[in-house]
Write a structure and sequence with these properties.
The complex is a heterodimer of chains A (about 725) and B (about 550).
Chain A lengths: L10 E7 L3 H12 L4 E4 L11 E2 L1 H13 L14 H8 E8 L10 E3 L1 H6 L5 H16 L7 H15 L8 H4 E3 H12 L6 E2 L5 E2 L3 H9 L7 E3 L2 E6 L4 E4 L4 H6 L5 H15 L5 H4 L7 H9 L4 H11 L8 H14 L8 E4 L3 H15 L3 E3 L4 E7 L4 E7 L4 E10 L5 H10 L5 E9 L10 E5 L20 E6 L11 E9 L6 H10 L16 H6 L27 E2 L7 H20 L24 H4 L7 H11 L12 E10 L21 E4 L9 H14 L19
Parallel strand pairs in A: 1-2, 1-16, 2-13, 10-18, 16-23
Antiparallel strand pairs in A: 3-7, 4-22, 5-6, 8-12, 9-12, 9-21, 10-11, 14-15, 15-16, 17-20, 17-22, 18-19, 19-20
Helix pairs in contact in A: 1-16, 1-23, 2-3, 5-6, 6-8, 13-15
Chain B lengths: L14 H31 L4 H13 L4 H16 L4 H21 L4 H13 L5 H14 L4 H17 L4 H21 L4 H15 L4 H21 L4 H11 L4 E2 L2 E9 L2 E13 L3 E3 L6 E5 L7 E8 L8 E6 L4 E3 L4 E2 L4 E6 L32 E2 L5 E2 L7 E2 L5 E2 L2 H21 L5 H12 L7 H20 L4 H16 L4 E3 L6 E3 L6 E3 L19 E3 L9 H7 L1
Parallel strand pairs in B: 1-9, 17-18
Antiparallel strand pairs in B: 2-3, 3-6, 3-8, 4-7, 5-6, 7-10, 11-12, 13-14, 15-16
Helix pairs in contact in B: 1-2, 2-3, 4-5, 6-7, 8-9, 9-11, 10-11, 12-13, 13-14, 14-15
The chains are: A alpha+beta (about 725), B alpha+beta (about 550).
Chain lengths: ~725, ~550
Amino acid sequence: MADTDLLDATVFDAILLGTGFTQTIVAAALARAGKSVLHLDENDYYGGASGAFGVRDLLKWATRISSTSSAGGDVNADKIEFKRLVARSYNNLEFQFHRVETSSADTIIDLTTVLQTHKDVSTEDRIKAVEDHITATYTTTNNPSKESKEAISSLATWASTPELGATATQLQSVSFSQIQLLEEFLKNTRKYNFDLSPKLLYSRGPLTNLLISSGIGKYLEFKLLERTAVYEALTDKVEMMPTSKEDVFVSKALSLKEKRLLMKFLQFAVDYENQKEVWEDYKNAPFTQFVQSAYGLTDKVLTAVVYAIGFDGNDYATTTDGLKSVKVYLQSLGRYGNSAYLCPLYGVGSELAQAFCRVSAVYGGIYMLQHGLDKHNVDKEANKWQSVVDHTGQTLKANQIICSREYLSKEMDEYIEARTLNRNYVSHCIIVTDRSAFGETTLCKTLFPMGSLVLNPGETPERKNKHTVSVLQMCGGTMSCPNDRYILYVWAESANLKTDAKEDLTAAIRKLVHIPGDPLSLKAPAPAQAAAAPAASTEDSKPAQHLGDAPAAGSEDQPRMSLDQELDMEQVRQEILQAEKKLFDESENNTPVPSRPSTPAPSSTGSSSSTTAASGTPTKPLSRTAFQKSKSAASLTSSLGAIVPNALFTMFYKRAASWPRVPYPIGSEDLKPLPENLTVVRPMNHSLDFEAATEEARAIFEKLCPGEEFLPPTPEPEDNSGF
Amino acid sequence: MESRHGRKKEQAESPEVLKAKEEKEAVLVREYLTLKDSLKELVESNKRDNDALKVTTALLRKSPDYYTIWNVRRTILKEGFLDNADDETANKIYTGELEFVQENLKLNPKSYWMWNHRRWCLESMSQPRWDRELAMVGKFLEMDARNFHGWDYRRYIIRQLDLKDKEAKDKVLDRAQSEFDFTTTKIHQNFSNYSAWHNRSTLLGKLAEDLSAEERADIVDNEFDLVKNAIYTDPEDQSAWLYELWLIGREERSISILGASVISFHPLEIVVAFDETVKMRNPFTHVAIPLEGEWKATGSDSALGSVWIFQQAPGAVYGPTVEVVIFSNDVCAVRTGSKLPAAVCYELETLNQNLEDISGRLGRLVIGKNLMYDVTKRIGPVTGPDGTLETQVAHPKHCVTSLTESDSLDDRVALLEREISAVRELVEMEPDWPIQILSTLLSELRKTISIHSTKAKDIDDECIELQEKLITIDPLRQERYEDRRAQLVFERETLSIIQDSKRFPEIEYAANQPRNLDLSMRGLTHIPISSYLLHLHTLNLDSNSIRSTRFLRNLLN
């Protein structure tokens, strides 16, 4: 290992530490501008805080976070303590594989006795004892597979070492269903791509535009987010919002007059920069105030719609912020379809990070993952960073060093820490469920506005959520989980560590899924009912929810797409050609025809896009009464009822995103300022999009290479655009 | 060519780019000219073989809109290949043609000749696969939901399929239903789609055929609901307005005959005045036998006008009374949607030859004995000289749409009032876009009301105001709105000249005609109905902006 870690050259224009999202853009831009770039990461994966993991890696990551002490030791001021600082960024991590609550027999293996009797032995022995105890009971009735052995071993480890983050219930007993569930997760480990900081892209936001203009987007595939829902406290309902012209047109929740008011406001927002007189007076006032008093959107539904469209992570957005964000949203609508958001496949952050790294590497950037770092060398006199020493003892020099906070030396970290007045955290939860929480809508986001949830039901005084809780549901179509599973990412800003992530988020989760053992969460369907109804059935009871205004033709999954599908109708044509060939072949020949060399159309998965149900689907014979029925459907609202999904796996954690309000470097009396050629990248924020990080990367690049073009298009190896 | 709908035009290109483009085009032009020469050769050589076919293929790839080449290709195919081919070979050839068209259609989905060639293939084939065509065109509409070629072709396929299922009415209805649902899907995706709305209107008629009145009313309500949602979502979108207008429908306007009179006895001259410009075919004048003579419109065009005069042929003999019979079929309105609702018969006395007022010809006319028969109550049909029968009396229908017609005036009024109030509500939020439609709706309502009622006056006043507003909103059509306004003002100012006839909504001359009329300073641009002015002695048209004096000829004749 040591040999492969040795570098031929040790002097670079720039060294980047950490493959977090922002650094990867900077690395790509620097390499593209002809700079020599060395990019190192102590992790064995790309993406840093935006990494994406399979099941095994997620559990490994959780174990590592939990088992690393974040307490600072007595070390040299220049020492890099990556592992400690990473561990410090994550708090109150807790995860659980849930027991399946069915009436059918589920054997529970009590662990209290075995844990009690082995209280005082070494951890290894205790784990062994618990493992044997479970195996003895479980494997008499089941053939132990590789995965079941691993599952038992993992559960035993968690039960024996509570500090690893297992939820309390798992410490006393395990059940057969838990073991089987974990087995299944381990078997499918590679089908999962869990995002540590889930996000989306605006179809016409800075990042998407950058991906297109630089040509980097062609490495990526996307799906469109289908809908946005908002939770309404008064009615205790999660409602799909009409967030596009088409949705507004078919919406039943809005009256004609409200439709007009809303559309008028949206028309204004697209062009708000040229109509300053309308909003100038409200510039620094809360956005909601402007919307209500200047545009008369006082109705509850309208307010929710504007919130669904304009919320960008900031609950205290000013009119200026709000309008900007509504405009990006509206510009994004319709670029690739009836949605403003794109969701990259195979895990959001890590795919993007890797795409940028790939470009950097193409232009000569050197990449090394899992590369340990020892310390920074700083010329204290000149206040200049000089080099970084890695685990092999090589001294790596560069003119510029760009890193995330975990790669700072103890001294540098303390400098930033001292400047951070306002703490900021993001509470996260990853949930895997057995069905969609939104019926036929599988890829969607939901917002729980601030103050809409009671965090401590039954207690006084009531505590409400101080920040919006965002939920992003992903489906198998995004290649982040198997097709029969759904991932719900739940997150919210959090101002301190007083409440743990679980407390911040559970109230919202309860409105969407059934959490086994939590009587306040939605009721799970009776087993028979659940078995009878397929995952996406309709018309079933769902007490607390009403997901009205579903799109008329949204029964199928949205097709996948690439970024060049906007103007390039060729894609659609190819699709037509293929579909037609198929049709042709089917009708002409009964013998199977060898498939043609298909163009690499990303959309080849879906035979037809969701929006065209009419032509393709066989039309069932309609009676005259059916006409009446479908006619009422014409005014459109099939209220989607969805069966409440069960939470199978939950993981909570709180990620630190604190950052000094005052931008660094700033003159300071008692602390040595950071070296001037050191750039520290901000931690990932909690907003839904990547726009802030993208803008930061651009700013860093422009500071380092003034006057140079930021990620110009990468030339094609062969230009095949002409005919 | 991909869809250009809703796209901004590309910015002007730099000179270098333009030059490069020109050079590229020059090459293409040369290639094309060579091909064109070979086409000429081809046509002259009368070759019907594979080589000839290949030339057309190459040409059509370059220029699919050159329809002559398609014709040549068909000739080659027919004479060179198909005439002697068995069914199987023929089918293969047609299938090949379909594939060829298909490929090219993808590049140029709006080429008439390609769609046309496709139809030719299918119609010539022994077993055309219409179902496959339907799926194909569905895909094209997915590519561009507003390609009217695609919609047109779709309707064509449906017609073919329906033809096959002539006997199975259920199948046809089911198909119409599924097509109707298809339009719903497309409209939900993007309602700014004239083709989809249009197709919907054609299908609705078919689907509603056998339904009861209540069921129809349900459908109509549902359609109004749908279109209103579109209008409120985007009032600037004309396609939705157009559908709303189609749903409202247009009340047939009744042509009225204001009166008829003898104006000269030797030779006999009879005048008939209509309330709008018409063409008359062969009205006849007789007592017991047809009276020889000729009908001519006054004014510059003797075949077109609102005032018609019968002049007796020299020497023709007539009795003490003359009957003038005008059949509804003999009167053609210039304006669409107008109709003479029933035959009209005047019995004019020719005995009283004491006509005091006949001397001054200008604008003076004495109404003879004005006998307007209610033709429906006549004994037996009126028979024309050529044996034609006026058997049916066309009642004006109060049409809600072509989909539902109602015989009840109340239904019509209720519907219009409901729609007008909805539009008025929208005007409060959107002061500009709905004005045109409001004006149209009010005119429709006006047709249902007696001319002298106060409600009619209010509507007229409002409509005049709306025209003035439209001039400021839409100055490009200023003259059109000015003319409309002039018409409305003229009608308001001439109310004393006419009265409701016994048969509403027709009108006739009032019993007491005013002698003088002052129309000065009314902003008139023209005199819309000159027949109103026949009886006037003086007419003051000072300070107007009348653009044409043609109307004067009617009066001077």
